Amino acid sequence: MTLTERLAAKRTQVLRIAGTHGARKVRVFGSAVCGEDAAASDLDLLISLDPGRSLLDIIAIKQDLEDLLECSVDVVTEAGISPYIRDEVMREAVEL
After folding, report:
1. I need a surface site. Which of 23, 36, 45, 91 has the fewest CB within 10 A?
2. Which CATH architecture is the domain 3-95 placed in?
């Protein structure tokens, strides 16, 4: 099963976990969006955090999703995107 298939099957759980930790507007970018994902691919997520949330919430989302999806997960906010790849990430990000 590819990452995209696992993500589709567990979409509701992913959004629940993200919401529990104050994440809104959960977007996917990278190989899962480009159709280049495989069973061993990692998941790249772009999120917006509610005011008052912190790096600890991002870490909790990452850990909980890695347990759920059984893959490596990278979680970033718009402010955390490298300026070198910002335009590309924003262009390809798809809301979950």
Report:
1. 91
2. 2-Layer Sandwich (3.30)
